[in-house]
TrEMBL record:
Membrane-protein topology: Multi-pass membrane protein
GO annotation, biological process: transmembrane transport
UniProt name for this protein: ABC transmembrane type-1 domain-containing protein
Domain (ABC transmembrane type-1): residue spans on this chain: 75-292
Cellular component, GO annotation: plasma membrane
Length: 316
């Protein structure tokens, strides 16, 4: 009796064919430039007038020169302006997300409010910075309104003070991104089973206990993602302070960020220093993201390890 073998048809090759354009684009536009950036960071490579110097291999000299420069000062500026915008952003985003999801509050017009809070995220950062530059200038409408109301008697130079400039940058970053964070956190809270909230209500939990003991622990993955993306975005802060201070980081370079510093090296065509600074940014981003991930992700979600440790200590 003859047996017929049916040869299976494999469609795996079509999958590889469809993902090939992505990997080709990643190789050409991301991986090769990244490798070149790291390579240039070990070379002396810049232009002096019309004369091109290098590339000459100098090892770690670019990295050491950056440590002796004002890089750490600009890193501090970047962190301060990021915190000014991020702290109210995450607090208000969590509050709004909890309110919108809570069915007991019966908030009307939720869709309208969601659209309104998300709209600033659709505006280009450059347009947003130009708007604030016009509004908060010495002869701008904000000063005019405050003077007409009798609140101030002399015009305030918002962008002439350290606190004013940093506060404006933080305020713009807050307004542009808190809507996006709110929508993401709302999705995370909606993913929690309603039975958990009903059980907590029957057990007598109040709103504060329900938020800190149930909601926050269960949305840790999305919260970690929000923190990590915000840190990366904060380290890449460029367009808002660049336009607001005309690229000078005024006053006295107190609003100069790391990417503005990097941009200055690129404009002067000092590719070696720019490459070294890019590597520093990559390392700092990786370390901060790892720390945030470890802090916001629980290795013992069900509490079994803690319970085992308590039993072990009690046995001793």
């Amino acid at each position: 009796m003859m047996k017929f073998k049916h040869k299976g048809v494999s469609y795996a090759k079509w999958g590889y064919l469809f993902i090939l354009p992505f990997f080709a684009s990643f190789l050409v536009f991301s991986l090769i430039p990244l490798a070149d950036t790291i390579r240039y960071s070990f070379f002396e490579y810049y232009r002096s007038g019309i004369k091109e110097i290098g590339p000459n291999l100098i090892g770690m000299q670019n990295y050491l020169s950056l440590l002796k420069s004002d890089m750490l000062k600009y890193a501090g500026n970047t962190m301060i302006m990021w915190l000014i915008g991020f702290i109210p952003q995450i607090v208000i985003a969590l509050t709004l997300a909890s309110w919108f999801v809570d069915a007991r509050l019966k908030i009307r017009g939720q869709q309208f409010f969601k659209v309104i809070i998300y709209l600033p995220n659709l505006i280009m950062a450059s347009a947003f910075a130009m708007l604030f530059f016009t509004m908060f200038s010495t002869n701008g409408p904000i000063n005019s309104i405050l003077m007409s109301m009798g609140i101030i008697h002399e015009r305030i130079d918002f962008m002439g003070s350290v606190l004013g400039t940093r506060s404006l940058v933080g305020l713009m970053n807050f307004l542009m991104w808190f809507g996006n964070s709110t929508i993401m956190l709302m999705a995370a809270i909606m993913g929690i089973s309603p039975d958990i909230f009903e059980a907590s209500e029957l057990d007598g939990c109040n709103s504060r206990q329900r938020f800190f003991r149930i909601t926050l622990p269960l949305i840790r993955p999305i919260l970690a993602y929000t923190l990590i993306t915000s840190i990366i975005g904060g380290l890449q802060m460029f367009d808002v302070p660049q336009i607001l201070t005309n690229g000078q980081g005024a006053p006295d370079r107190t609003s100069m960020t790391l990417i503005m510093f990097l941009n200055n090296h690129l404009k002067s065509r000092n590719y070696g220093m720019a490459g070294a600074l890019s590597v520093y940014l990559f390392i700092v981003s990786g370390i901060l993201c790892f720390v945030v991930y470890r802090m916001t992700n629980e290795n013992d979600p069900d509490g079994s390890r803690r319970a085992a440790k308590k039993v072990k200590k009690a046995g001793k």
